[in-house]
Amino acid sequence: MIEEVEQAVRLEEVDRRLITLTQEIAELPKHIAQIEKQLIGHLKQLEAEKAALAANQKERKQKELDVQAANQKISKLRDQMMSAKTNEQYKAFQHEIEFCEGEIRKAEERSLELMTASEPLTAAVKVAELALAEEKKQVEAEKASARERSVADQQAVLEAKAKRAELAATLPPPLLANFERLRKKFPKGPIVADATKGQCSACHMKLRPQYFEDLKRATKVMNCESCGRIIRYAPVVDQQAMFDGGTRVSMS
Ligand SMILES: [Zn+2]
Description:
This protein is of the alpha+beta class. The chain has five helices and six strands, in the order H-H-H-E-E-H-E-E-E-H-E. It folds into two domains: 14-169, Orthogonal Bundle (Helix Hairpins), CATH 1.10.287.1490; 174-250, no CATH class. Strands 2-1-4-3 form a four-stranded mixed beta sheet. Helix 1 packs antiparallel against helix 2. The longest helix has 84 residues, at 87-170. It is rod-shaped. The structure holds zinc ion. Residues 193, 200, 202-203, 205, 224, 226-227, 229 line the site of zinc ion (ZN).
């Protein structure tokens, strides 16, 4: 490979690192926002479960009071019944007492229902509280590590940028201009593409046979005639032969 292409490859390696770092820096806050959103969702769920439990307990308390009030009313009615003067009056008291007894039965049935419902609810709240405490700890730890990562990434970006400037300064100006123009056209790369079996590995267009032959013996930087990327000749490597211990390179 000619030296200028190697220089372009080295510059592209730094660019690739910069792209990765920039992506990571952009992803970190998104990741944090996502885990925080999840946490808020779980917090709301717990609040809803706690509210349901509180409503259950409140209603149970009310049912107890209802039973108490109905019992008091019954004893009062029984006292009054003693002084009933007619059979009709007596029956009316009796009827009212039966009504109160019916109310007590209903309240007790409802209390039982509420008590049955409260057991899994209490357990769910307990489980959710423990899980949430654990999740909060995890979110805090992830936030701290994301902050550290972000600081390290920013530092790495500065270093990579300095390295890029240093490398760029060593490139012949026409090659650098060529590279930067391609960088704008292909922000995510690649800028330098391999040409194997007469084909550009980036745009997959076949090179003219003569152009490919010229590339094999190139002494200056050549660009793909279709996409314009800098191309370097990459012979077909016989993987099996490499595995066997020797490298057989075919000149196709
Ligand atoms: Zn191409």
